[in-house]
């Protein structure tokens, strides 16, 4: 393949969706991925309605939907009192072709996207290769990469997309600031074949459960239930992941027979947005550009929205539009990252975590009032499902 292409660093959901979108627009791509294979562990597992609409345009939605669970309802609960408010995404039927959240593991998307690249003459996916550096001039970007064996390789392209995740090398090379904060608690994500839906009356498949001592999230995937607990950062990883301690926590949530734990991961969560997404002919997208807590499931979804926006503008630039068009990509998507994704994710954590009884009551009363009023309910789910963030983009010049 010659240098008349776009190089994408990272074969996560964002890099692969950008690649599929570009080849659909007849633009050749090379995707460079450090790992030997695509990640198949349990990471993000929620697809919001507009993300499914975008994936549909790329012919990636049907396969994913057939392997996931459609969830028109999601819930806000109190750990002791039960249901507080149940939100209904069916209210969005005039705004989206997919008025539900889809619960499906992100690897099902990356697997389908990889297949699309493999079937195309316009795409090359190279694995086991890490990008270490780049140089750019007025016409091209030269990318320096290294194989696991130590062998060096040089690629040339017209543009470079850094979709290389939270620890992005491309972001580091651009020396762009990545301000924000690190959430104090560690997030412990567990999964179990235990059927919470059969054990807890009226439980929705996606439930955010507030508690002044230990909030949690219960999320259903096609084969498992996921439980997300905040965890004391003073514990070591071994202590957090200790099977006895985990069993105690599961029992305190719902006493019963010993729980089978299928996966367990403990991770630190950051809330950060890169100061710039555009650096000449080099663009950042997805976790490379912004990180946030998973409460609300907006991280991967926002990244996929970046990928679609970026690919559409890059296609215009490819066909002669001025490269300054990419600055609008940055203005639009940074605004969403700060004003929607980060703000909403932080607010979700505050609501779940609130310890002051008066404030907790006020939050809960507010949520109850919202679901009772159809218009307010609709406005709320337009926001939480990220449709509003996409509508608002039109006002960003
Ligand atoms: C362990 C883990 C658990 C998570 N759990 C959840 C969750 O429960 N809920 C949730 O909403 N979100 C979760 N996330 C976040 C979610 O997975 C991300 O938001 C999403 O994957 C972002 O996609 P991305 O394509 O931007 O980045 P990634 O999926 O991180 O993909 C980046 C890719 O770039 C590759 N790469 C990195 N550096 C280089 C390099 N120098 N050269 C070449 N390739 C490189 C990496 O190998 C990786 O494949 C989790 C993330 C992780 C890592």
Can you describe this structure?
- By secondary structure, this protein is of the alpha+beta class.
- It is built from 13 helices and 22 strands.
- The protein has helices at residues 13-24, 49-57, 61-66, 106-118, 169-174, 196-199, 237-240, 243-253, 299-318, 325-353, 357-372, 374-384, 387-393; strands at 6-9, 29-32, 46-47, 69-71, 73-78, 82-88, 101-103, 123-126, 129-136, 141-147, 152-157, 159-162, 180-182, 186-192, 206-210, 216-220, 225-231, 263-267, 270-273, 278-279, 282-284, 290-291.
- Helix 1 runs parallel beside helix 9 and helix 11 crosses helix 12 (374-384).
- The two termini are 36 Å apart.
- It binds flavin-adenine dinucleotide.
- Flavin-adenine dinucleotide is lined by residues 9-15, 32-35, 39, 43-44, 106, 130-131, 163-165, 169, 189, 265, 267, 286-288, 294, 297, 299-300, 303.
């Amino acid at each position: 393949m010659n240098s008349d292409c776009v190089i994408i660093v990272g074969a996560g959901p964002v890099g692969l969706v950008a690649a599929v979108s570009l080849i659909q627009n007849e633009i050749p791509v090379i995707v460079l991925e450090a790992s030997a294979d695509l990640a198949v562990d349990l990471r993000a597992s929620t697809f919001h309605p507009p993300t499914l609409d975008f994936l549909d345009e790329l012919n990636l939605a049907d396969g994913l939907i057939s392997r996931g669970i459609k969830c028109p309802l999601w819930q806000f609960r109190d750990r002791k009192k039960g249901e507080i408010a149940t939100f209904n995404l069916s209210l969005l039927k005039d705004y989206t072709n997919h008025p539900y959240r889809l619960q499906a593991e992100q690897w099902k998307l990356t697997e389908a996207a990889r297949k699309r690249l493999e079937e195309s003459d316009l795409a090359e996916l190279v694995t086991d290769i890490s990008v270490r550096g780049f140089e750019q001039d007025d016409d091209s970007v030269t990318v320096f990469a290294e194989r696991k064996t130590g062998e060096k390789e040089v690629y040339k392209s017209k543009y470079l997309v850094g979709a290389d995740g939270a620890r992005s090398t491309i972001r580091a090379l651009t020396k762009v600031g990545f301000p924000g904060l690190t959430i104090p608690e560690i997030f412990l994500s567990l999964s179990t074949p235990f059927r919470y839906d059969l054990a807890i009356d009226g439980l929705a498949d996606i439930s955010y459960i507030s508690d002044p001592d230990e909030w949690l999230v219960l999320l259903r995937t096609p084969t498992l239930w996921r439980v997300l607990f905040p965890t004391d950062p003073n514990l070591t990883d071994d202590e957090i992941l200790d099977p006895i301690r985990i069993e105690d926590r599961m029992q305190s949530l719902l006493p019963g027979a010993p729980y089978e734990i299928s996966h367990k991961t403990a991770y630190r969560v950051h809330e950060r947005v890169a100061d710039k997404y555009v650096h000449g002919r080099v663009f950042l997208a997805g976790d490379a550009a912004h990180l946030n807590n998973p409460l609300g499931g907006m991280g991967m979804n926002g990244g996929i929205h970046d990928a679609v926006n970026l690919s559409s503008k890059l296609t215009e630039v490819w066909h002669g539009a001025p490269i300054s068009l990419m600055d609008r990509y940055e203005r639009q998507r940074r605004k969403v990252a700060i004003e929607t994704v980060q703000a909403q994710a932080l607010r979700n954590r505050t609501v779940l975590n609130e310890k002051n009884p008066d404030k907790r009551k006020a939050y809960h009363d507010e949520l109850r009032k919202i679901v009772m009023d159809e218009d307010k309910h609709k406005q709320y789910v337009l926001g939480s499902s990220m449709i509003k963030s996409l509508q608002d983009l039109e006002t960003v010049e």
